[in-house]
Each structure stands twice: as C-alpha cells, then as structure tokens.
C-alpha cells in the first residue's frame, strides 16, 4: 500500500532508497526501529501507532505522518488510501482444493466460534468492494497483474537498457575472444603438427646420419685414395693446361710452331708416341700436321684411320677412346702393319664446323680407359687447336684483304702515273730506235766501220734494256705480291721508288734529295708494299707542292736507325698540314685533294701496321709536312 | 758555212742517240744538256736548226723557244715531246715552232723534218742576206734620192714628182738616174722587186 503511494510520488522504493528492511510482526518493532533511528521511515497499520501512543509506549511528537490523507469518517491518521482489511488469499503454489476448503470453512464459521471470539471478529464474509486492492495490484503490476510487468518489453528496455547494452557488448567481446582463442588454438595445432613432422624427419635424418657415420670411415679411406689419384690427374692437367696457354700466348711463335707444340704437348700428356692433325674437308686436304714418331704413320696426308674417324664424326664432339684397338677394329691391316694397339681421337671445330680430326695412337694395349679428366683435356686441346687455326685463318684473310686493297691501290697509282711512266719508257726506247736506225743507215751506205756499228748496237741494246727494266719495275710494282715477308733493305726500297717517280718529279720541277744512312739494318717486310708506301708519300708531297713556287719544290727522303727501329722520313716544302686534318688523314676516304680518293694513306697505314710498324705525320714540321715510318729492325744474328 | 743541228735534251740517251742518228745522215750535230748551256755556247748567226725536248728541268722547251725569239736567234725549232698532247702541240706551233714531233719517232721522218728545217733556214738566211744587201744600198741614198725613190715605187710620173717636190723635171731625172745606179736596178720594175724583197715601205 505504501509502495503505491511512493510510486504515485515518482519514487521506486527498490532503487531510490539506500536500503529496505522487512521487519515483520509484531508491528511494534517497526515503530521501535523508527524511534531508534535505524530507519528513516516505515509503514505500519494506521491503528498500530495510535494504539501504542495511547498505551503510553511512544509520544506523539516523536513521529511525523508522511503523505497524510484526509479520509472522512476514518478514525486514524493515514498515509495511504483505505483498503479492505484481512482478505483471504492464497499463494501461487497453494493447492486449489485446500484453498477452496479453507475458504468454505472460514465463510461458514459462526460468530460465536471460539476462533472468532479469539480473533475478536464476527467471522468471515465476501468483501463489499475489493476494487481498491485490485486497482492497487494493477498499478503495481503484482499478484495477478504480474503478467503485465513481464510482457512490457518496452518497460524492460527502458528499465534495463544499460544492462542490456553492456551485456550485449560483453557477449560480442566474448564471441570475439572465443574466435581469437579458437584461431590461435588452430594455429597452435598446425605448428604442433609441423613440429612433430620435423621432429620425425630429424629423427629419420639422425638415424641416416648415424648409419652414414658408421659407413664413413671405410669411405674416407677409399676417398682419400681417390682424392690422391684425382689430385695427381689434376696436377697433370694443370701442367698440360699451363703448357697449352704458354704455347698459344707465346708472341714469338709462328702458327706452324704453335700447332706443332700443341701436338707435342698432347703426345707427352697421354704418353702416346704420335699425334696427327688432319683436315676432314677437301679444300684443306693438304693441311696435315704430324708430331712424334713418323715411322708409325702410313701416309703424310689425311687422317690416321678412316674407320676411327668416321666413328669420331658420329660422336658429336665426344672423344673416341679405344684402349685395345684390336677389340674394336679386329685385324685391321693398317693397325697390324704399323703396330697400333690403342687409339685416341676427337674432332676439331673451326668456325663452328668440324674441320679437323686430332688423333693419337699408341703401341701398347692400355689396361683401362682414359679418365674423364684426360678426355676433358683432350677436348680443351682440340678447342685450342681449333681456335689457333681460326685465328690463323682470320689473320690470313685479313692479310689477303689488305694485299688485295694494296694491289688495287697500286694499280690506280700506276694509272695516275701513266703519262710520266710513258715518258720514262719513251726515253730509252727512242734512244734504242735512234741508235738502231743510225746503224741501219750506216749499213745501207755500205759503211764498213764495224767498230762504229758495234758501238751503236751496244747503245741500242742498252736503251732497250733500260726500257725493259722500267717495264719490269712497273710490273713488279703492280703484280699481286704474295704476303710473304723477307728481310728488306729500306734504302733499296727508297732508291727503287725514286727511279719510278723521278720523271713525275721532274715534270713537276720537284727536287728529290735522298739522305740515306750508309749502314742500316734490314727490316722484315714485303718489298713491294713498302715501295708502295714510300711512293704514296712522295706522290702526296709532289701534289702538295703544286701551290708552291717551282723553284722551292723539294722533297727530302731520309733513312736512319733509331735504337731498334729503322726510320724512313719523307718531308716536303709544301704548305703543310692543317692541325685539324692531322688526326684524320689516315682515315679511309678522307682526302684534302680535289681529285683524291682518300685511300693512299689509309692503305699505307694498314701496310705499315701489318709490318708491326707505325706511320705518323709530324705535327711540328718546320716547313711543309713530314711523314715518319718506323719499322722494327731485324735483330742481327 | 755548214748548217748544224743543235740538239738540246737533258736525257743523255736521247741526246746521244739523236746525235748518232743525225750524224748518220751526214749532218753536223751539236748537243747541249740544257737551254742555258746552248745560250752560252751558240755563236750568233750560225745556221742550222734546233731540236728541243719539251720537258727539261731548268728551262723547258717552250720557255727556251720564247727566250730564243727574244734573243733574235732565228732558227727553225723542232719541238720533241715524249707525251703528245694536242694543247702543247698547238701552243708550240702558235708560238712559231717550225715543227712538232713525238717520241718515239720514225728515223726517216725525223731526218726529213731536220732536212726540211735546215733548207728552210738556208732559204731564210739567203733571203735575209739579200734583204740586208738591198737595205745597205738604200742606206747609201741621200734623203732626196730616197724621197724620189718612194715616188718611183708608187709609179708617179717625173713631172708630178717635180711639182710635188717643187723642183724642175731635170733635177728629178738626175736624182732618179743616181738612185737607180746606187740600187743597181736596171728598170723601175726591178726597183719595185728589190723594194719588195727588202720590205721597203
């Protein structure tokens, strides 16, 4: 009843007060508690307080009536509205049968019943108006209206929202936590699995290792022996390789020597008495190099054994190793005749094609095959020989090309000099004709002076010879010189060129002054090509001096020795070279002449370079232009 | 005085062989190594002809030819060349060379040219001598006689000459007979011929 009043005042007794105590009967104890100050307020039956004051146990002034109601006709002060007293009620769990029997008993109880007298009542009846109680329970949503409180979600929400939210948050957090934990768990499980596998493997490996260790000692001994053998083989290979390198990189050796030495190295390495390098191609049929004991070889041309060679060619670059030749070839007549017992051979590649075969034969049956190392060395050797041949071919082709170019250039030089050469030829020819004609006249006149005739004829022959020598000189100059070198006297070169150019020089009023060293070492070279270079320089000088007064045209040609070099210098009194031209004059097709081709100097340079010499224009020539050729002198002895 | 063939060539073989050839034709030959040497040694007025090699180191043939003309050495010049080129031939002939011959040459052609040149020189010299003799005769004339001769050469009548010169006809006749005897002319026709030879105006 008090609850309802509190609710009407907007107070929730279960939350708004610091505490609630239900003291129970007798109600005197409740008033006692208020009086003692144990509680701030209390609710009791209206009659109780009045009765206690009348009995003199408390004083009226010690209490205050809260929310005092003014109810007409009601004798006691009250805080709540009035409700019927002492109703009959059952609890939820009271059996219906029992409730019905108790109710009937109470209602049928007469007023003089001892129980009625003891309770100072007239008995029990049905209430006249129970609506205030019903209303009360309705408002407070208790008793039969408790359902209302449960159904109201809105109320619940309103009432418990913070709790619900925090509970939901808690729940979500919990779910996440669980998810995280389960994932971590999963991982842990996987890791564990892996670890377990690894441990298994380790275990397995450890077992293998143990087994291996047991085996190792025997192997170590075996391997040490192997290693020793391999070491020996390696050392042998290293020495052979070193030998190969030293042969191929030796500057002084000719191509022929290098090949020969390579073959000798092969023989020494394999302990075989004879090696043959033979061409497999028709065009190089004569190319055949033999090293070692020639008495073991049937012919000087071609490969050792055609059957072995055809087998090698099918091996695709792998060497053919036959310890016992009889087991493979049977009673081959050649083998029997020359006593060949074993065979080793491979192919030599030149410019990516198989061009040669390299073969060895021995006179003893070998107990075993050559090792892998040995065969590798053979391959290296074959490749080395191939490279050497390739390089030689390249050099030859370059030399051929250069010789070709030089030849063309000489032809054109002679063409350009045709007029003066014709004049040069005409002089002795005219002389010869004149002498002959004169002698003929004397004869026709019957002049018997044979001395005079003889002299005339001698002079005619002299003239004819002179003409012939000039023709020979021209022919030599334009002929296709082979690229062979021989010791050459540069003074001879200069004089010979001087003869060839003298008419041209004379025609241009150019004086040629030869200042040749009396003794000069020979140089290794090609006479004609060197003549060509000197002639080029002189003709350039003559051309350059066209612009100079004819009285001042002079060419000085010097030869001298400078340390181990033989120097030829050609200087003129022309206008000299422009600095900017100096770097380019040796370029092909670079020319400062109107009718020039720009070939002369570039050919001259390539000729001199092929002679291991240098040619350069001196930039500080005082007057005109000076060209210097330096060639290595042939060492005496 | 015999004609001489002067050979100038720097090439010994060409020079000597030509000497032989010319000698074999019974002609006198003098050889020189260079134009310079020839200019030093040549005795002015000697008859003959010159054989010049076109190409020589100090003075070339063409240059020498020019210098000879300047030095009034009038001799027919035959230019000999080893390399025939038309422009040089044209230049040689234009500058008054007598002939132009190319090496190697045919001996008979060469000798023929030499003979012809010598003959030309001889004629030339004879003509020159006659011209000189007539000019010497003209030099003996007095100025008045020279004046009268000029009128005679123009076939002017005596009386016209007399009136032109303002003298009597008799005086003109006297001058005329004097100059005719000095000039050794028997008639006026001959006088005209002499005048033409001496190239008198």
Produce a short descriptive summary.
The complex is a heterodimer of chains A (637) and B (201). Chain A has 637 residues and is α+β, with helices and mostly antiparallel strands.
Describe this structure in words.
The complex is a heterodimer of chains A (637) and B (201). Chain A is 54% helix and 12% strand. Chain A has helices at residues 2-8, 28-36, 46-54, 96-107, 114-118, 131-140, 146-151, 153-249, 255-270, 306-313, 325-329, 333-338, 372-416, 418-444, 450-478, 490-507, 527-544, 579-582, 600-610; strands spanning 274-279, 288-292, 320-322, 342-350, 353-362, 486-488, 511-516, 523-525, 554-562, 565-572, 614-618, 626-632. In chain A, α9 (255-270) runs antiparallel to α13 and α14 packs antiparallel against α15. The mean pLDDT of chain A is 83. Chain B folds into 2 domains: 4-127, Response regulator (Rossmann fold, 3-Layer(aba) Sandwich); 140-197, Arc Repressor Mutant, subunit A. Helices cover 57% and strands 12% of the residues of chain B. Chain B is built from 9 helices and 5 strands, in the order βαβαβαβαβααααα. In chain B, α7 (158-165) crosses α8 (169-182). Chain A binds chain B through residues 419-420, 422-423, 426-435, 437-442, 456, 459-460, 462-463, 466, 506-507, 509, and chain B through 11, 13-14, 16-18, 20-21, 23-25, 55, 57, 82-83, 103-105, 107-108.
């Amino acid at each position: 009843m008090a609850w309802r009043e509190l609710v009407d005042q907007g107070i929730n007794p279960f939350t708004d007060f610091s505490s609630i105590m239900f003291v129970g009967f007798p109600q005197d104890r409740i008033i006692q508690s208020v009086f003692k100050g144990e509680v701030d307020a209390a609710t009791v039956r209206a009659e109780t307080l009045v009765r206690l004051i009348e009995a003199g146990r408390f004083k009226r002034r010690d209490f205050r009536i809260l929310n005092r109601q003014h109810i007409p006709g009601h004798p006691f002060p009250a805080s709540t509205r009035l409700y019927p007293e002492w109703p009959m009620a059952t609890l939820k769990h009271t059996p219906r049968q029992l409730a019905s029997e108790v109710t009937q008993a109470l209602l049928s109880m007469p007023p003089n019943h001892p129980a009625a007298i003891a309770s100072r009542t007239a008995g029990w009846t049905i209430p006249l108006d129970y609506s205030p109680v019903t209303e009360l329970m309705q408002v407070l949503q208790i008793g039969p209206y408790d359902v209302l409180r449960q159904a109201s979600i809105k109320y619940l929400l309103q009432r418990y929202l913070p709790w619900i939210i925090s509970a939901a948050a808690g729940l979500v957090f919990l779910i996440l936590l669980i998810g995280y934990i389960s994932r971590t768990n999963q991982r842990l499980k996987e890791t564990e699995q892996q670890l377990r596998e690894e441990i298994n493997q380790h275990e397995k490996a450890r077992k293998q290792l143990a087994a291996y260790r047991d085996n190792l000692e025997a192997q170590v001994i075996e391997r040490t022996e192997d290693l020793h053998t391999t070491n020996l083989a390696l050392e042998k290979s290293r020495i052979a390789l070193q030998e190969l390198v030293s042969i191929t990189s030796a500057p002084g050796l000719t191509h022929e020597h290098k090949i020969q030495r390579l073959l000798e190295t092969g023989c020494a390495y394999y302990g075989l008495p004879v090696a043959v390098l033979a061409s497999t191609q028709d065009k190089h049929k004569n190319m055949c190099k033999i090293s070692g004991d020639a008495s073991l070889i049937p012919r000087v041309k071609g490969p050792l054994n055609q059957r072995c060679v055809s087998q090698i060619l099918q091996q695709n670059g792998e060497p053919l190793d036959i310890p016992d030749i009889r087991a493979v070839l049977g009673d081959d007549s050649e083998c029997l005749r020359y006593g060949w017992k074993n065979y080793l051979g491979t192919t030599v590649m030149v410019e990516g094609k198989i061009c040669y075969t390299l073969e060895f034969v021995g006179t003893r049956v070998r107990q075993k095959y050559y090792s892998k190392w040995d065969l590798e060395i053979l391959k290296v050797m074959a490749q080395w020989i191939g490279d050497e041949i390739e390089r030689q071919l390249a050099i030859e082709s370059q030399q051929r090309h250069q010789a070709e170019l030089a030849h063309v250039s000489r032809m054109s030089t002679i063409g350009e000099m045709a007029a003066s050469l014709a004049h040069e030829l005409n002089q002795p020819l005219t002389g010869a004709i004149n002498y002959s004609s004169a002698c003929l006249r004397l004869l026709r006149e019957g002049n018997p002076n044979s001395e005079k005739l003889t002299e005339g004829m001698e002079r005619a022959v002299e003239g004819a010879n002179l003409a012939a020598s000039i023709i020979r000189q021209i022919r030599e100059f334009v002929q296709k010189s082979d690229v062979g070198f021989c010791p050459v006297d540069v003074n001879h070169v200069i004089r010979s060129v001087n003869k060839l150019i003298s008419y041209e020089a004379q025609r241009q009023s150019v004086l040629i002054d030869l200042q040749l060293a009396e003794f000069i070492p020979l140089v290794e070279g090609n006479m004609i090509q060197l003549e060509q270079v000197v002639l080029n320089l002189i003709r350039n000088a003559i051309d350059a001096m066209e612009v100079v007064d004819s009285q001042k045209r002079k060419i000085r040609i010097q030869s001298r020795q400078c340390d181990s070099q033989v120097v030829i210098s050609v200087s003129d009194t022309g206008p000299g070279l422009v600095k900017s031209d100096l770097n380019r004059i040796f370029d092909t097709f670079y020319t400062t002449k109107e009718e020039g081709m720009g070939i002369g100097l570039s050919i001259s340079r390539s000729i001199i370079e092929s002679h291991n010499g240098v040619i350069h224009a001196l930039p500080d020539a005082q007057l005109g232009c000076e060209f210097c050729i330096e060639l290595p002198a042939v060492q005496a002895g | 005085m015999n004609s001489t063939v002067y050979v100038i060539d720097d090439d010994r073989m060409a020079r000597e062989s030509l000497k032989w050839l010319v000698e074999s034709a019974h002609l006198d030959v003098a050889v020189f190594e260079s134009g310079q040497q020839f200019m030093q040694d040549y005795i002015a007025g000697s008859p003959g002809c010159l054989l010049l090699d076109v190409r020589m180191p100090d003075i070339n043939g063409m240059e020498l030819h020019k210098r000879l003309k300047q030095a009034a050495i009038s001799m027919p010049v035959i230019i000999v060349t080893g390399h025939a080129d038309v422009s040089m031939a044209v230049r040689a002939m234009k500058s008054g060379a007598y002939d132009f011959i190319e090496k190697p040459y045919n001996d008979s052609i060469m000798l023929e040219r030499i003979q012809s040149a010598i003959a030309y020189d001889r004629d030339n010299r004879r003509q020159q001598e006659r011209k000189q003799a007539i000019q010497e005769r003209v030099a003996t004339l007095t100025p008045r006689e020279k004046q009268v001769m000029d009128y005679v050469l123009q076939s002017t009548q005596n009386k016209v000459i007399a009136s032109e010169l303002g003298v009597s006809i008799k005086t003109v006749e006297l001058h005329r007979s004097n100059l005719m005897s000095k000039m050794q002319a028997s008639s006026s026709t001959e006088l005209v011929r002499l005048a033409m030879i001496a190239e008198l105006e």
